[in-house]
Every structure is written in structure tokens, then in C-alpha cells.
Amino acid sequence: MIGIEANRLPYAADKRLAKTIDRHLAFLEKELAAVDADIDTDVRASPGWREKEDLLASVPGVVPVTARTLIAELPELGSLDRRKLAALVGVAPFNRDSGAGAAIE
Known about the structure:
64% helix, single chain, 105 residues
């Protein structure tokens, strides 16, 4: 919603509308900051999550948002081997052949 409102702002027809959009953006940004703080508190309070986040954050290019998304979306991370995890997230290369005549030559 922050992106949507930010995109609307340059096209505000009058100052009153622009002011309303600014207030809405400020509200959304404040709420986002509060949610981020809650997530940070919860991750830091859990030894398991903290350990996973620290390990993920040690990988170059993995920022806290990415690490926390992986922790939330893939609780199996760390308990499955790479092949099973790739299959779980849908990036494992599987043949979609069906029957003996499936190969086209």
C-alpha cells in the first residue's frame, strides 16, 4: 500500500488530496515500522529463529528481510537436504514426461 500511495501522490489533483495521501503514507510507514519491530523482537527472543537468522545473514547478499522471510515461509530450512528443499519450493528440475511416446524427436 505504501508503494500504491507513493505512486498516487504525484497525480493528486489538489493540495487537500495530496495532504490526505501524505497522512496515509505516514500512517502506513509508522505501522510498517511497528510490525518490523515486533518481528525483530520475536526473532531475537527465539533461540532457534535467532540461530537461523544469524546463519542466513552470514551469506553475502542475504539481508534481514530475506532471512526472516525464509524463516517464516520455510520452517523446514535446515531439516531437509537440498534436493528435498528444492522440490518443496518448486525449483527442482523434474521431467514432465508421460508414457513411452512423450519424447518428441
